[in-house]
Amino acid sequence: MLLSRPLATRTLSPTTNGASRTDPRQPRRPAARRRRRATMSGGDGAAPRRRAETPPRPMILALDLDATVWTPELYQLWGGAPFKRCDKTGRVEDRNGERLELMGHAPAVLTMLAHAQARAAAPGGGGGRAEEGADEDAAAANGEEGADALLLSDRGWEATELAYVSRTEHGDWAADALAKFTFPLPCAPAPSSSPSPPSSSSSPPSSSSSSRRAARAAAASAHPPNLHALAAHHEIYPGSKIAHFKRLRERTGVDYGDMLFFDNEGWNVREVERLGVVSVHCPQGLTRRAWEEGVRLFAERKRLGGGDAGTAATTTTTTTTAGRRKGQR
Fold first, then answer.
1. Can you point out the beta strands (E) in the chain?
2. Which CATH number fits domain 60-198+207-316: 3.40.50.1000, 3.20.20.70, 3.90.1150.30, 3.40.30.10?
3. Quick one: 220 exposed, middle or buried, by C-beta within 10 A (0-12, 13-18, 19+)?
4. Band (131; pLDDT cuts 50, 70, 90)
């Protein structure tokens, strides 16, 4: 007697409400969630779009003062302290009326750090996170160009501490002059001075973006009052800058590989780079070119896993100023 083979059947996995996954009565996923998932996956079978990583930033940004941040060098002044600030122009002069001026890109860099500190101190622990996420999305959408713009933008500097590292014998003059440079700095550009990633959207700004800009402007008004208060560390005294950086590391516990240093004198750079500090020789002061080279060099080294002594990195901006007067920096 032949037995008939039962028909093959497919068992449907039950759900929590007793309905099968093919049951048309089962609730569908909300349309908004479906659209969001499609957007994140690129849509139409495209590969998922990855958010750009936040650029590596130094834990300590160390700046020389004489002929790097300002000019002339303090020893070249005839009057010296006390310095005075012109209320109308914001310019700073010594007691004999000789002007002390910020150089090149220094006002933009210092203003950017001031706004970063204000964002970090804002309620919520560093406002602008939403803006940062938008910048990262734009960078991811625009490939290498967007990533480089994000690297050179003002995002991600909230945790960076500023240190002045100077060999001058006029430490008291330096402290007084720094306190006289108040915000807004003379010759400083608008708060969003650094380039921002290009946007892939041409849609008009939303109310949320307007509120973010308003929050950022409010935070900017709370930044430190002057350049002296802006810096967490003041290593301003004669001697080799190796001693300055060793003292910085002892005080902060920050590895040399997490420091970025700018100086106009080559011998200072060569000494410090042996410690493992990412060091930039800028003979014309803190120019925009020197700043961008330093930021790129630091990011490249961190991505390659650079550490302390033995993995030093340095770069030099090659243009020099003819007839520069020499002195102690």
1. 60-63, 70-71, 84-85, 92-93, 99-102, 161-166, 233-236, 259-263, 278-281, 314-316
2. 3.40.50.1000
3. buried
4. very low
- Indicate the residue type of 94: D
At 123, list the tokens: 């309620």
H/E run at residue 209: helix 207-220
The percent helix, strand, coil of the chain (3-state, each to 5) is: 35, 10, 50
Give residue 240's identity as a one-letter amino acid code. Answer: S
Structure tokens at 92: 């700073």
Q: What single letter denotes the amino acid at residue 96?
A: N
Q: Please tell me the predicted confidence (pLDDT) of residue 306.
A: 62
22 CB neighbour count, 10 Å cutoff = 9
pLDDT at 326 over 90: no
249-280 residue pLDDT tens: 999 999 999 999 999 999 999 999 999 999 99
Exposed (0-12), middle (13-18) or buried (19+): which is 201, by Cβ within 10 Å? exposed
Cα of 77 vs its chain's centroid, Å: 33
The residue-averaged pLDDT of 108-128 equals: 83
Q: Which residues of 232-253 are buried (b: 16+ CB within 10 A; e: fewer)?
A: ebbbbeeeebeebbeebbeebe
Q: How far is CA 4 from the centre of its chain?
A: 77
CA distance 69 to 138: 32
Which tokens hold the place of 307? 């550490």
Q: In whole angstroms, give the CA distance from residue 113 to residue 118.
A: 9
> If DSSP codes are grouped into helix, strand and coil, which group holds residue 119?
helix
**Three-class secondary structure of residue 261 per DSSP:** strand
What are 267's two structure tokens?
A: 């011998």
**pLDDT exceeds 80 at position 30:** no
For residues 84 and 180, the answer to whether their CB atoms sit within 8 Å is yes
DSSP, res 115: H
Query: So where are the chain's domains?
Result: 60-198+207-316
Sheet holding 84-85: strands in order across? 70-71, 99-102, 92-93, 84-85
